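Record minuted for completeness.

…
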Amino acid sequence: MSLILISIFVMLLVLGAPIAVCLGLSSAIVIVTHGLPVSVVAQRSLNALDSSPLLAVPLFIFAASLLNATGVTTHLFELVRMMFGRIRGAVAQVSIFVSLIFSGISGAALADIGALGAIQINQMKAQGYREDFAAGLTVAAATIGPIFPPSIPIIIYASVANVSAVKLLIAGIIPALLLTALLMIQVAVIARVKGLPRDDVRVEPRALTRKALISFPALMAPVLLIGGLVSGYFGPTEVAGVTVAYAMLIGIFIYRSLSLRGILGALRETAESTANILFVVSTAALFAWVLTLDQVPMKVSGLLLGLSDNPLVLLFLVNILLLLVGMVLESIAAILIIAPIIAPALTAAGVDPLQLGIVFVLNLMIGLLTPPVGMSLYMITIITRMPIGRVIAGVMPFFIPLLLSLLVVSAVPALSTWLPELLMN
């Protein structure tokens, strides 16, 4: 059964069918041909969406769209530029740091690129940076978003792997900071070697203070979100709702730039993005159920545990698998298909579930930067109208900090487990 399922899935994928169609149609064909009730297709697909953590997905998308509509991203970029001053490669460093700040609002790499990409690239080009470097850095920095809370991929992984979503979101904080630091170190090295331009921003105390006051409400959004999670007052769904309310409050009453048209536009973007994500979630759940019928998770668990009982060796093997999978599968689909198969085996071998969740998501976010299904690459080509080959050339140097952070997070469990244990126990 599973062999037929995977064969049909691969055939549809090669023919260029959307990933959700590949998952759903292959599963439906196998269900019908094996004499199972057709009603199973609807039942299993809809049951996958009956999950309160998944309510956070449209809410976080809506919050990010609202804040983007207020012009918050421009204020944040200008504030951080003033903070960094006229150091060599300053605008590139600002791009990374602003990605970290905005990741505390958006929860998705593509949302970060959509909100910040044009601003980051245009600012770097204006300072004399090569366009391929600017595009490569922008997509590399966007990988911070799905690791730092809030994170849509982490919430989906937690719901699939039966892990505490709150603990897993908090577990991403230190790895995200590590990734930010390594990217900034890489830019500092490139700035020294290649002589990247200095920023021409003029830093005056009065202007800096004024910009800090303007940006303060936006800077408080990540603080509110993480504080709510850590304090235990909010779960992921509740904190997403609070973030939406906060975004509307500051957009209407403080910045006074959020109009009815802006709200309707944000709702339209949210509906489109949520429909795409949840279509994949429902069809992937059906696909995973068919695999479970054929006992594929148990077979894979036995295979992995037969190869080694060393957690570090198993994590290394899974890293290779996920990096390859990330090249050909969309990240959310990969989480929904592979996490139920891999997670039980590695947990049984002694890998901490929180560490595994962060390693899993980080792998697949790197996959967003790799062809042929690197969604971040395609999105940046739409923004810049650059050939995808130039974008790939620009992002290549940044695979060093990305893969190094993956290696460190895989080798040191405490980077993922220490903060949740400290704050939640």
Notes: The first helix runs from residue 2 to 14. The two ends are 44 Å apart (CA to CA).
